């Protein structure tokens, strides 16, 4: 594991390549590692291919240890090695690299020690798309979510005591102590319902029915809180992303800030990789596009026209001619602002000057292409 | 199966009949086919009526193969046979027509090969009402839904490892490998709870309780995302459909685009078949109607009046006289714009000129019918 | 059962008493009847008290038959007996009165025939509060709910075929036919998870995991649709109920219709029975009240003041003095408009003239009560 | 238990200490008590440490009895001992102090009597954060929630009768009476699905499938109602809390009430304990802060600046310079108003004068710190 340091050139090279590649390699490593851990626990697979499985696991571990050291070095070059090592990410990287070997050194059975490598999956966490929004939702609504959790635990405890009281004589093996009754209560309140412990006395069943209905209620509150918060966050997110783009489109340049805020609410941002067909000839269109970044190619009969940043297209579909008249394709990674038919009408109603600009451009294009 | 081509006249005839009839026939075919596949797998039914069941299945197959060929020919007449055959729909049609016979030719047991005919049900897919809206919701919210899915899988994996660790010695048959523990985890996280594998150690149960509560959380996020997106799509859809209709009603013709956008938010579109009683005499009314398309018949004492496109009716119920004074029936397929009492008041508040028009017309009608 | 007709005076008397009393008696009858039906099916109870149970059931039946005849007579006096008998309600009343005896006449075992009396519970249906709103939600959103149902059925069928295919050899007793596999699929897709049929092959479990996650998705869509529709209906309902009341309060009389619409959005209607303490002295207040109908009594030191329709109270709590200074009680059934602190501020911001009126009245009252 | 009264000095002292400390002690007492009750029911633990467990329980009981007496005395000093004793809280305190001993005096077995001490957990109830909001949601939406519950019970009863009818001969042990069938129905409708009673006849399974789908529907309605109500309450709550704070910030002092209502909708309140790093140097910023109460310390190079009530900071991150330029820490408990980037832009658009003030201050600070 100290080998990488012996080849500083390689480490340098890797530190120089973008963190993006490193991250991609780490994802592949995590996927392989997770598969190997699963195989490790399957007795026939372990008996048949023990050395292969452990070899691959050691390989993954070496890569993660190496990645950790490279990241420390990269941070050290920026003068903040300690900052990285004590950050959440640094600690996760350290745990991924060291947990399993340390456990082995402490004398834990190899097959058990490798289970600690399950931590590798936490490395994927920062790469989950939209995670920031989910976290904001959970943080902003932590108080009501917490109160629902406390309510849940209170109902759980009281239900356990009640059912323990009425069922302990009928089923001493299943409801003979409060912890057993709690196990039943949590299985029931979450509507999981394994069926390993089921009340059989009439009062026990009556309590159980109330507990189940309370379970639905807790569930409903939980969902209601999350749905509310998610709706607010989604609106905020979309607004922010779109505002950035709107200000870059010359078409909207003459609008005052109030109008821009208004327009921003109507648009939606999408990011498209190169060579994606945005509009297909002959399809029914229900939106127009503004190019916030990137470039598209319009495949007109006999010639190909390229439209760059700030241009718009697809407006004819909103002006009465509902069938798309040409294929339009991205030539490189592009960020487009989408204006749906419904919002187009609202926009035109509120900003007639924009409507005229679009109308004029549409007429010019129609003439030009005849 | 090559017979239809031998009767080009018939194919022509079928291509000439609307695709609608063909589609209806296909739905019936799917329903019969699905029933036959189910019967095929029930041993007593198969033993008793093997030949009937297989006969009907061959009949359905012949129909779908024939339908596929007709569609290819129809597309070929439009010069785009290849386009159809490679489109999603064309591929589904091909699979429906060819999957089962090809499997039989490859030597698969007849009864098993027919299971591939279950694909027929996919033909119903494009006909599901409101599907477009559902798809838009799923596409627009694919990123957060995906992050919830990734979170779900991460929780699944870590929960499996933890429960495998604490339960493998106590229940080697059920938790003896990570894949087995994962099966338990997915059954628990989705709150399905079969009860085939249940942790019995105290720590296993503690982990399980946490997993169940996480399951509720994942569920809540999922629902929250879908609810939010669905609300936005519903608003957008209604607005679009209603806008189309509003612009066709002369009553609203003098409004500027901003006012039309405003009015559109207050109205709701409904489509009614002929001979439907919209208003029943003596009932309490809480909405008025504008006719966007179609015609209605007012059953006044002694005479019948017909109202056509652009007319409105039912306004008296909103002007103080809450009981409907006549039966009103559609005479043909009609599209009506509904204005509820609450929205009527908002409309009157914001557009007093419209209020006067409605008031004047109501007075004129009252005088006329005295 | 023909007895009631033999005492027309009694029938007249009952027809004269309000339908409300009749309805209340019917609810009591339904409650008793339902309890008796449950007892009837419990063998020990039936053996011990057969005659009592059947006696009470006959009594309930006689009452419902009698109620039906009274309602027919009442309708006949209004000249529309046929209308009532063919209306939904009339048919339910007829079924409640006739189903069980007809079954007995047809030779059905008594104990089984009485099960038809379970229909009695349908009589409660029209009395469920808020039912109209629920029905509107279901009707307006019937299309998307239907598409989710169709999607659910398609997933159900395809999942059944897949699991039947992989599990039929491993568990012929549980997955030996498509209907059996469908039973498993519906139990799993709804996340009920009885555990009576559980896939055991690796592929079966993989399919099952996908089915469970789809189950969550269907659930989420379903909830999302209902939540969206419910939110819209609730807004509409509150608006309507509040509008009626606002227009009756002189305080708001000078507002134009646009301002009334605005005010209506800020208020909330509550109905209170007599002798309810609305405001308790010394409590922290966060809302004020307008009396739309009814009367309240203010318990000032040394005297009692009565406020009637159109008056307002509790405004001092919103003007800086947060502790309530007197008990206020309803003297009869009253309809109040509640203005919460948050909305009070919005109202004051938008309608400064109303703010002045409230302020002046508050000062006058303070002076008077010193 | 009458000891505390024997030391009036101590009671006085405790009554003088804030109720807060008393409440905290009570929470600790509840936690210990709940643990002991659980241990009491576990036979091995009880056998091993009976005296310890009972001793601690008696200790908790003594504390709660003492707390009750102190509270009565405190209330008596305020002249309202009877008011406290009959209030909800007073009754709970009395029950917590007296239920278990009274049961013992009545001759109930000690171990069973202690189960009544489970009531202690109800003491935690008023301390649950956000509970007021949850209660308001449940109270305001009690009518629709009740109608869903009634629908649920009606479906439950009809489903029970149907399944009892078709399954009673096939499974007399499980579906032999209506109450047994009802147990099955409630387990199924709530999607708990223990699997202890499962229909086996084809019709029974068909009914069961319908019941499960109805269960999802009930669930969806429930969640929809709660989500809708929760969203409304959250908006109202945030508005109220923020309004209080906004009016204290001089920056907003010149705005009229309508503008304050507008600004309030854009801000969010957070409460921070001392020594929390609000802004970390070098991080990407996406919001600015106004100090409604408390104080923060800006860690500029070479000097530390303190900002008090009414000041704002973090605005540079919103004016183009996205990286935070200094650490900012709270020095004491502070209430901040957060303005997110998205809302900052809306605010600037609607109130250009505020924009200028912020811009000017930002320039002044930049110059000063160069």
Structural summary, described in words:
4 copies of one chain form a homotetramer. With 370 residues, chain A is α+β, with helices and mostly antiparallel strands. The first copy, chain A, folds into 3 domains: 3-128, no CATH class; 142-233, Helix Hairpins, CATH 1.10.287.70; 253-368, Jelly Rolls (Sandwich). Chain A has 15 helices and 8 strands. Chain A has helices spanning 3-6, 8-16, 19-40, 43-77, 81-86, 88-105, 110-113, 131-140, 142-167, 172-175, 178-189, 202-246, 257-266, 341-350, 352-368; strands spanning 268-272, 277-279, 287-293, 296-300, 303-307, 312-313, 327-330, 334-340. In chain A, the strands form 2 sheets. A 4-stranded antiparallel beta sheet of chain A has the order 1-8-3-6. In chain A, a hairpin with a 2-residue loop joins strand 4 (296-300) and strand 5 (303-307). In chain A, helix 2 packs across helix 4 (43-77). The longest helix of chain A has 45 residues, at 202-246. Chain A is extended, with a radius of gyration of 30 Å. The first copy, chain A, starts with a helix and ends with a helix. The relative contact order of chain A is 0.06. Residues 1-7 of chain A have low confidence and may be disordered.
């Amino acid at each position: 594991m100290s080998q990488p340091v012996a080849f500083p050139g390689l480490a340098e090279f890797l530190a120089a390549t973008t963190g993006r590649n490193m991250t991609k390699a780490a994802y592949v490593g995590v996927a392989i590692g997770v598969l190997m851990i699963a195989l490790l626990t399957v007795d026939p697979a372990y008996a048949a291919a023990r050395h292969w499985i452990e070899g691959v696991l050691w390989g993954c571990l070496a890569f993660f240890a190496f990645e950790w050291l490279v990241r420390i070095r990269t941070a050290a070059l920026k003068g903040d090695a300690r900052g990285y090592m004590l950050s959440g990410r640094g600690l996760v990287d350290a745990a991924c690299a060291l947990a399993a070997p340390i456990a082995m050194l402490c004398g834990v059975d190899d097959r058990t020690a490798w289970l600690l490598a399950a931590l590798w999956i936490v490395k994927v966490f920062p790469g989950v798309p939209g995670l920031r929004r989910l976290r904001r939702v959970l943080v902003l609504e932590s108080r009501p979510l917490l109160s629902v959790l406390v309510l849940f635990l209170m109902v759980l405890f009281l239900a356990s005591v009640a059912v323990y009281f009425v069922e302990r004589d009928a089923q001493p093996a299943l409801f003979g102590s409060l912890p057993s009754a709690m196990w039943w209560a949590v299985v029931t309140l979450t509507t999981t319902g394994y069926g390993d412990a089921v009340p059989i006395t009439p009062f026990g069943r009556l309590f159980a029915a109330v507990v189940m209905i309370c379970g639905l209620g807790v569930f409903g509150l939980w969902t209601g809180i999350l749905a509310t918060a998610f709706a607010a966050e989604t609106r905020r997110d979309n607004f922010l992303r779109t505002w950035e783009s709107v200000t870059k489109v010359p078409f909207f340049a003459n609008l005052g800030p109030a109008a821009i805020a208004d327009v921003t609410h109507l648009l939606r941002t999408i990011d498209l990789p190169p060579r994606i067909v945005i509009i297909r000839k002959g399809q029914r269109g229900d939106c127009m596009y503004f190019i916030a970044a990137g470039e598209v190619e319009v495949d007109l009969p006999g010639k190909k026209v390229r439209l760059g940043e700030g241009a718009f297209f697809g407006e004819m579909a909103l002006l009465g001619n509902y069938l798309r008249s040409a294929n339009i394709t991205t030539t490189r990674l592009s960020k487009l602002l989408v204006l749906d038919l419904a919002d187009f009408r609202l926009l035109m109603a509120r900003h007639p000057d924009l409507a005229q600009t679009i109308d004029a451009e549409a007429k010019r294009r129609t003439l030009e292409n005849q």
